[in-house]
Amino acid sequence: MDSAEKPPSAAAGGDARRKRKANAAGIQTGNKESAAPGSAERAAAKQLVAEQPIGVPELVRRVDTMIRDLDEIMKLANPHVAVVARVADLVNAMGAVITAVENPAAKAEFHGEQKIHNEIKAQAERAKEILGKAVKVKIDQNLSDSTVHLPRLVNFMTNPLPIIFTAEELAPLTVDVARRAAEACWKLALFDSATKQKTRAAVGLLDGLRQVLETVNPKESKVHRAVANALLALDAHDYFGGKITEAFGFLATSDKTSVTRAEVEDALKGLKRDVRMFADIAKQDSDHAGKLAAEGIGAVLVPLLGLKEKKNLAWVEEQKPYFTGAVAVEKEVCHAIGVLVSHIADREVCQSYIVDAGAIPALIQILNRPPPIAVSGLSAETRRAAEAYASALHELARRAADAIRKLVHDFEAFKLMVRQEEGVPTLRALLDRRDTKVQRAAAAALLTLGEHDRLVKEIEKLTETLVARPDADRARDALKTAVRTLAELAKEGQQVSAEGDMVDAVVRSGAVEAIVPLLSLSQRVGEEYDVSFGDIEKEASYAISLMASKDVNQNRIAAAGALPGLVALLQRYPPQTTGSVATSVARRAADAVTNLAHENNVIKNEVRKEGGIPPLVSLLETKDPKVKRAAASALRTLAFKNDDNKNQIVECGALPMLIFMVKSDDALIHYEAVGVIGNLVHSSTHIKRRVLDEGALQPVIGLLSSECPESQREAALLLGQFATTDSFKIKMVQRGAIRPLIQMLGNNDEQLREMAAFALGRLAQDADNQVGILHAAGLRPLLDLLDCDKGNLQHNAAFALYGLADNEDNVPDIVREGTVQRLMGRELIVQASKDCVKKTLDRLKGKIASSARVLRYLIYLMTTDPDGADAQRIAVALVHLVDDALGEELREVFIKKLGLPILLRVLMPSGPGNVKTTAKAQSRNEACFALHVLLKKVTGKLPTEDAPLPPTPDAHLDEHFNTPDLSDITFVVGGEEFFAHKIAFTHFPNQFHDDVSARRTSAPGERAVVDFSHLSGDVFRALMRFTYVSSLDSERPDIAQDLMRVAVKYDMHELKRRCESLLCDDVVAKGETLGAFDLVARFDLAESLDATSVSIRCALHALEHHVAMSTQLGPTKFAQLTGKMVGRIDEHARAMFHRLPTSSDGQTRLTA
């Protein structure tokens, strides 16, 4: 299927929405060279929809009919292929339903879209279940001819509706049908030769199977394996091999007078698809690859490797510059060859077949082609075409080199053939290509050919020659080339063997022991030859640097004696030396020291003992920027966590030059320089002092504004280290460090933010800096860092905030920014950050407790604009921060200064134009929690007083409860009789007695019978229980609610009070398990019955469990609920505050 083509207009919206889900379902939608033309797909879709003029309902009915038909087909004697074909039809029919439903016009008239999707999903699952049962039935051609169903399978494979691959409900079934269809073809081919011929003769079947390979995602390995099995069983390699040969012949004999360019392009596209199919088949199994190779696929594919060189096709490139059609075919051929010989099993057999077809000369011929040439002055469109062409040529070279590597793997005869065909020089030339992938592929091929072993031997031999004859120019040049090539092979790259990657292979060959002696070669042959041997020394240093990039090789290189040689090279080329060779040697030697000493303290010490630090320090003065950077990088590595090296670097006078380098405009230079200084001052107070005395502070501050993020990061880290020196904390701020550090907090670079927060945290330990950071707008970005998911970032930000909170002048701004709420509402990763936040909150509490000035100013800010967001944030914060012994300051803030009304206003529902819903919901939750905390604080300060419930009159009637003994009145409730005694109801209000009289059904003078069916049996039983036993069932709060209604109706105050008490206790007992909707119902009931205590208890519960309530009800309904509760909360809070004790003089620090 061609993903570039659009589905029918009816599916435009839905299909686009589903394409993102296609890969997860196993469908490959990115193939732009599918066999099925887009027009055919669209026509098929339109036809299926057009066949159903009566619309969606009829389409759905037809799908239902097809589902029912499956059950009937399953009853046949030979149902396997029939069911697969029927389900294939069904999938397309389902696709037609979804296409119709997704039609915008249909959507306007039809409102059951989701229902249809759900039905389709269920039907697809049912079809898949039946399909699974059918394929378990063995195909038996003797019972019926299953090949009659093949045309329907072909139709499914070649003309599927695009939507069946993207619709979430259909994609799994589509993939399963594709697999089962391929398996059916495979089984038919294996049944007998006659069936195989009939199957193979089905029109379009082989092309359909190939299209399945192209359409279904390769991750669906079962589908691809089934298709590969079917294609091989049907001898498709003969069919497609013939097509390839025919197309190749057509291209080889055509010219511009006999064909059009479009015909050539179509032929090349067809070749590409056919070749790719062979690679897909071979990839599935070693047997597949072996069979294809044995059947002569190599003879079919290898001739295609010369397509680009066909002179009769040159006219195509003349008409269409940068045409990549032939190159694309050659790329697929190289890939297919690589796949054919990749399997371990029968690898040698496959290699032999492909090589016998002439693959090695053809591949080397491709590698010998010149690299693409950059051309300037092109139009934008032509430039893009040229770039695509160059990329295709590089990719072809990479695949050709990779194919050679696989062809010669563990086959000495073929390796020799590559050498005889001059393949080694060709591959070595590719090491200079400006394409990393090509370089790595060529290096891997050379390693497989054993070139590294040969180069090591060559290096050893040439070294001996030069020691004996220093003036042997050819030997010197050859040695340089050999070392350079070996270095290129040692670059980090792909796996080349089971033992490791390219670096490992080079080291195992003995390269270390062969190259290390070259570092001192000029000394061995005489000082007069040192300049002429510079290139060899440079390449040897480069190779050592590459091999040392893997830590496991460091000690081996050092043990071979590399350090004395490298140090000698550094000493031999002082900074005054000029010339490209000399400076390159120094740079490569410094690079080698850097890699050797990386995180290896033993080697760091050895470098110092060998005298390597002084020449590195001297090289900082060179004019060559590359040498400067290399020397600084080496010093940086040597100084890291090594005090002896630090001291020697400083004593050698490195600091002045490093500070000069920090001022450099070259980002790479000042990055390395500031890194060296950072490592020098780390945990070294005396060096830190010397660095600052040398004038490093201002240049480092200047780097905070560098365009190089690495330099910014290192500068911020270094300033954080400087900030441990008290006298320099203020200087940094005075010299402009704060604003760039705060700007860095908003950078996308995580490490940059971390280091900026680290520096600000250190600076925030000074009182003046604390105010400066806050008023430079540093608070909010620090708070924002607490929201990230990185522990180091969180901790650095928390530490900085802790410092800011130490200055009471900052407290009002910290509070009105909402800092308290944000600190309390964050889930931090590491315990140290949690501890730091707790200390910050405690520090804020302490500042408010110790400074009446701060609290007065916060109250002023809160009352100046009581409806503003600042007032709300301050009121919430003061709940958590104010806590005096008697609660007088709480009363001053929240009652006299109107803090309570401010909090309550937040609970009211949002009106039009108010704060955004999310922000308002967050503020409401914060206010709920604050009110809960406030009331809890006040409750804890109330004087202890017993307020027992008024005593219930002792009835002592429990033994007479609902017994006929001595009963003089019977209540009939819903057909059930309750035996009672008039004397038990004597204390009931008149309203009850009046109702009893009104509902009496017995005649005067007879035993009293009263119809009380307006109550339920359970409620009346509870009323009787309360009357006789003076208790209520605490397990039945639902009965208590109905009984409270009875109490209100009959003005029974004691019963109502008892019901309220039970309902309040039930709210407390259930806690967070009480459902939000149950609480709403109970609150509404309490309000309707004037059950104040229940209303208040419900309101307090909503405040305490505001998160669960808001989640269950949703923000809007929760806001409506809290709005209704505001009055009760206010009433209860004021009553609580009223009960607070007062001091003897009635004065507080706020009123004094």
Structural features:
1152 residues; 3-stranded mixed sheet
How do the strands and helices of this protein lay out in sequence?
Blueprint: H1 12-22, H2 38-50, H3 56-73, H4 80-102, H5 104-109, H6 113-134, H7 150-158, H8 163-166, H9 171-191, H10 193-200, H11 205-215, H12 221-233, H13 236-253, H14 261-284, H15 286-294, H16 297-301, H17 314-319, H18 325-340, H19 347-356, H20 359-367, H21 380-408, H22 412-420, H23 423-430, H24 436-448, H25 451-468, H26 473-489, E1 495-497, E2 500-501, H27 502-508, H28 511-515, H29 521-525, H30 534-547, H31 554-559, H32 562-572, H33 580-597, H34 601-609, H35 613-619, H36 625-639, H37 643-651, H38 654-662, H39 667-681, H40 685-693, H41 697-703, H42 709-722, H43 726-734, H44 738-744, H45 750-763, H46 767-775, H47 779-785, H48 791-804, H49 811-816, H50 819-824, H51 831-850, H52 852-864, H53 869-881, H54 888-896, H55 899-906, H56 917-941, E3 969-973, E4 976-980, H57 990-998, E5 1008-1011, H58 1017-1029, H59 1037-1049, H60 1053-1070, H61 1076-1088, H62 1092-1104, H63 1106-1113, H64 1115-1138
Parallel strand pairs: 3-5
Antiparallel strand pairs: 1-2, 3-4
Helix pairs in contact: 3-4, 3-6, 4-6, 4-7, 4-9, 6-9, 7-11, 9-10, 9-12, 11-12, 12-14, 13-14, 14-15, 14-18, 15-19, 18-21, 20-21, 21-24, 23-24, 25-26, 26-30, 30-33, 32-33, 33-36, 35-36, 36-39, 38-39, 39-42, 41-42, 42-45, 44-45, 45-48, 47-48, 48-51, 51-52, 52-53, 53-55, 53-56, 55-56, 55-64, ...
